[in-house]
Amino acid sequence: MRFLNLTPHPIVVVGGPTIPPSGTVARCATVSRSAGEHQGVALVRATFGEVVDLPDPEEGVLLVVSALVRAAVPHRGDVASPGDLVRDGSGAVIGCRNLVVN
User: Fold this and answer.
1) Spatial contact of 41 and 35, defined as CB atoms under 8 Å apart
2) Using alpha carbons only, what angle is made at residue 47 by residues 24 and 55, rounded to the nearest 5 degrees?
3) In angstroms, how far is CA 80 from the centroid of its own chain?
4) Which strand (E) or helix (H) includes residue 52?
5) Which pLDDT does position 61 carry in this prediction?
6) pLDDT by residue (tens digit) across 44-68?
7) Rounded distance, CA 59 to CA 57, Å?
8) Beta partners for residue 86, in sequence order
9) What is residue 72's three-state secondary structure?
10) Model pTM?
11) pLDDT tens sequence across 5-48
12) Which residues 6+ apart lie within 8 Å of 84 measured at CB?
């Protein structure tokens, strides 16, 4: 099976491959509505809509996407997102231990 990374950054799987970005990013459309302000900062309510730039299923291809995109397409068995994140001493994500599939 081949991986196709539809995120904007490399996916580093600890003890496994680093999956380079493909150049296409699958995302959930977002609609933001004003929710007022607090101490001069605008507040919005965001709702997520349809997934954009997610290719049709292809035999032998596992699409690596964000957890949000994966959750938005529970019927798709060909999508995965990084799971069990690994962080450095300052808390920055440096990789994952596995991929979560639907």
Assistant:
1) no
2) 25
3) 8
4) strand 41-52
5) 98
6) 999 999 999 999 999 999 999 999 9
7) 7
8) 95
9) helix
10) 0.87
11) 999 999 999 999 999 999 999 999 999 999 999 999 999 999 99
12) 96, 97, 98
